[in-house]
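Follow-up to my earlier ticket, as requested here are the two runs.
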Amino acid sequence: MQERDQIISTDAERDLLIYMIIVLIVVSTLVILFFIVFQKRKNQLLKDKIEQQRKFDEELIKTQQEIQEETLKHVGRELHDNVGQLLVLATMQMKAAARTVKDEAKSKVENAAMALKESLEEVRALSKSLNSDVIFNLGFDETVKNEIKRLNKTGLIECSLSINGEKVDFENKKDEIILFRILQEFFSNTLKYAEAEHLNVTLDYQNACLAINVEDDGIGCELDNVEKGSGLINMEKRAELLNAKFKLTSQPEMGTSLSLMYPFKK
């Protein structure tokens, strides 16, 4: 009888142990599942936050670009309508003065009139490059051609442009403006800092993208040691808006080059 009671007691202890193990396994499983679900939820919230921040940054950049474009458009119109008209009037007055002055001063007045005429042409060309409406009408290639001509007329640098492949009309016309502004920023930096004599631009229309390469023969720099100003940041941010691959390279005494790969087929 005592042996029987011991057997029953052993069975009860074994059943209790099994029960406790099962409970422990179930509890552990629930804890693990809870942790996994919690971690997934946490990761999802983090992803959502990052995505919201990315969208916010993108909208902020777009808003900034729109404000800049409106400002540039306004400046372009003012140059064309107001400054341009004043230069036209001044040119006409100088030509009238050249017909009345004596031979001794006539050449000087004619030279002044020619300088005013050249200034008028420069102002008109500059107003076209600033006004996005003009870029819309001309298209990307023609706008770049006009900018290259304008830079050559300044006499500060010798520029060349090469266009390869079959021209493609962009699905989004605003992309043309953003691309052109990137090039304008590079041109501006070259004139201000590079001390370059030559600037070469290549537009290569490929099957699914437009490859743009710009290079100067200026003094160059170590990009890692250069503080990123608004110009360089603007170029990179604009390229991001287009999903374009952006690469800027430079070496001391070896010039600076810009490479852009714009996917016109989304």
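Run two:
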Amino acid sequence: METNISQVIDLAAKRAQYDEIVKEILSDKQVLARILKYTLDEFKDAEIEDIIANIGDPVISKTRMEPGYTNTQKVKKESEEDNVPGENKIFYDIRFSAYYGEELIKILVNIETQRTSKAYKLGYHLDNRIIYYLARMISSQKEVEFAHSDYDNLKAVRSIWICMDAANDEDSINRIRFKQDAIYGKEIEFPNIDKVQGIIIRLRKGQNLEKSKNDLIAMLEEFLGKDETEIKRKRLSEEFNVVINDETERRISEMCNLSQVLIDEGIEKGELSGKVTARYEDGMSIEDIAEKTQISIDEVKTILREKGLLSD
């Protein structure tokens, strides 16, 4: 008989596998190029093909899903970690260099995937973690991108976070960056103040959503949604001009299958049940709970009956 512990371990392994496949999908240079184009000013006027050509050799954290499996569209090994003496290591989800402009100026980019951006779930505020990551991306450049006091060779850094639990009307892209103010006297122009930027992309978790008005969010929601593989292939190809090769299609299929397994085995159901119960106990109406959790009123009532909080 399978024990509860073994079930939890199995579910955790499947969740980890799901997360790794998501990283693999996002590491496709076609996806990375669109993320850069629609979030960073340096690339907003560039053609997708040119951005793809000027993306360096990104890397996905930890181990590949299938060691030895190669693909010209995928990424090569660079460095997925910062190891600063006296500080803990950081493993980035996806890390790469990109080049822009006629002089091909180098910037350093990392992309992180998060199931949530909400502080009460994370146990911290996401902006604090982004600031920390940006600081590490800056400090780790010494003796790598520049030496001694040659600070003008400091490369710009961009940390882009994709969060996947926004409500139906909360899809958004927000930027964190330095702001300059003159406290007294003549304002000085600081030409490099934009070297450090964080981006938060919030994707909606609900099903049967209207297509986002933002092209990047619409594409990412299509990639990471729960529709069948063939439907994804058709939409990504026809609506976003994304070429889906055999490996990417296989990973999308694996992701969809794992997603369904996780739902069937209760991970998302358990999370949903907890949200519904907590909101009901806080005095929220059934109608408002249904809207907030993006499920039907009948589904809310069913959960509350199972918890003994609502009679027939």
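The only thing I checked on run two: The CA atoms of residues 72 and 256 lie 24 Å apart. Let me know what else you need.
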